[in-house]
Amino acid sequence: RVQNEPIRTDELQTACQQVCPTEAIVFGDLHDASAEVTRLHRDPRAYALLHELGTRPRTRHLVRITNPNPELA
Amino acid sequence: MPPSPLEPVPLQRGDVSDAALSRSLLAFQFSRPGRAWWALFGLACAGVGLFALCVALTLEYGIGMWGNNIPVAWAFGIINFVWWIGIGHAGTLISAILLLFQQRWRSSINRFAEAMTLFAVMNAGLFPLLHLGRPWLFYYLVPYPSTLHVWPQFRSALPWDMAAIATYFTVSLMFWYLGLLPDLATARDMAKPGLAQKLYALSALGWRGSARHWKNFRTGYLLLAGLATPLVLSVHSIVSFDFAISVLPGWHSTIFPPYFVAGAIFSGFAMVLTLMIPARAVLGFEHVITERHIDNMAKVLLATSLMVTYGYIQEHFFAWYSANPFEMAAYETRRTGPYAALFWIQIVCNCVVPQLMWSGRLRTTTWVVWLVSLAVNVGMWVERFNIIVVPLSQDFLPSSWGLYLPTWVDLGLFAGSLCFFAFWFLLFLKLVPPVAIHESKELRVQLEAAAAQRTGGAR
Q: Which of A16, B90, B241, B372 is the most exposed place for a label (fewest CB within 10 A)?
């Protein structure tokens, strides 16, 4: 909370997120359905690293697409 | 000289009257230390200096002075911790568990072994403190009402370790001191007036040897033995939980608690033998620590070697039987990977060499037992290295794999901890009767009564 008001969605950025030129890092409030990070968690490319060990990580990584459309590559 | 099979080797031999025992077992305390003691003590002090230097460097510059890094985040620090705690367990087993089992042969070796436990636990306690990035915040592991409104993570084995080791040290210290009281009083009575006599008198806490004192002594001693016994099993089980409750292949194994406890007793007995065989020769204790004691201890060494060997076989078998590729890879790398040489040293030292102790003749040949005990000390340290470093160096994701090499600070801390132990142990040998005088006298009375009963019955 800042000045007794809850932090707005996607208001805060971490230093690494701020500086990243490709906007590869996203932080936020997973409880907030409208947050960018919640949307990315539901992206079909998202996977949890070593989740089968029962670690239940809070971070998701997005799979790198390695076979782009031949018209782009 | 091998014992004749029809004549049991006595637990005591020679002149063991009360006066003779008091005199012979306190002789070193009242004489000037010889050159050998001073030489060893000097070496130990030099080592403590090295230890202090390495500790200071670690505290000042941090864990970067060690070889630890991702992925091998735990190495010498934790290996040394587990090794020293394991060594400590033999002392408590000899004093407490053998007391409750009424094994009379414990009485001349128990104080020696308990002192070893105390100093080993002191050493062991240092390493978890040092391996913290901010050691001055170690008290975060203690559940105190913090102004930060945070408790320690009770699901982690680290607060459990804190509780277990603090308890173990306290109980061992009380148990050792209580057993020492009558002997401090004997030393007080036999000392010439002077500073030594005053110190013995103060520490003897006014022991008069009255019947009431002895009754209370007996009760307290048995109670503390009863408290210390479950600690032998629980403390090293908790230490094994540091590894077993994780998910790492090679660590996540239910056999760890009994396997670690057996290993602790194994390495502890080996250390007792390593220390005791030279000490009994130099200090002239062969009349109360006979080949029978060494024989019995060698048998325990053999038994625990077999348990530990079973543990190794079980681990590798179940890694294969599980068909889990990560488990199989973790054990494959132990046998054939970059640290394979250490694995095979472990197997030879812990599984092969102690098999010599099947032979009764070799069990009573003291220099053979001494060499076997040295091999076991080395083998058990290397086993801890294999358990801790190898699974960390090669875990689930190949991108995380990495090797570990110790720095000179790591080696200095290890050598320094050995010297720190030697420092306290040499002081103990000089200042306090290492063999329990009152228990030896009690044993003589018991042995005479048993002998009288036998000849009386044969009449």
A: A16
Question: How far is B130 from chain A, CA to nearest CA, in Å?
Answer: 28
Count the helices and strands in chain B (H runs, E runs).
16, 0
In whole angstroms, what separates CA A64 from the centre of its chain? 14
Residue B158 burial (C-beta neighbours within 10 Å; 0-12, 13-18, 19+): middle
- Write b or e for each residue in B424-443: b if 16 or more Cβ atoms lie within 10 A of its Cβ, otherwise e: bbbebbeebbbbbbbbbbeb
**What is the per-residue pLDDT for B1?**
55
How far apart CA B268 and CA B172 sit, in angstroms, is: 15
Query: Which residue numbers in chain B have pLDDT < 50?
Result: 459
Helix (H) or strand (E) holding A61, with range, is: strand A61-62
Interface pTM, i.e. ipTM:
0.72
Structure tokens belonging to residue B318:
């179940």
Q: What is the DSSP letter of B399?
A: G
- Cα angle vertex B225, ends B221, B229, to 5°? 175
How many angstroms separate the Cα of B90 from the Cα of each of A56, B42, B357, B435? 41, 27, 18, 16
Chain B residues with CB under 8 Å of a chain A CB are 247, 396-397
Distance from CA of B61 to the nearest CA of A (A): 27
Q: How far apart are CA B296 and CA B300, in angstroms?
A: 6
Cβ atoms of residues B232 and B93 within 8 Å: yes
Decide if B396 and A55 are in contact by the 8 Å CB cutoff. Answer: no
Partners of residue B396 in chain A, C-beta under 8 Å: 50, 53
Largest distance between two CA atoms of chain A: 53
pLDDT tens-digit readout, A19-58: 999 989 998 888 888 888 899 999 999 999 999 888 889 9
Distance from CA of A53 to the nearest CA of B (A): 7
- Enumerate the residues of chain B whose CB falls inside 8 A of the CB of residue A50: 396-397
The predicted structure's pLDDT at residue B371: 96
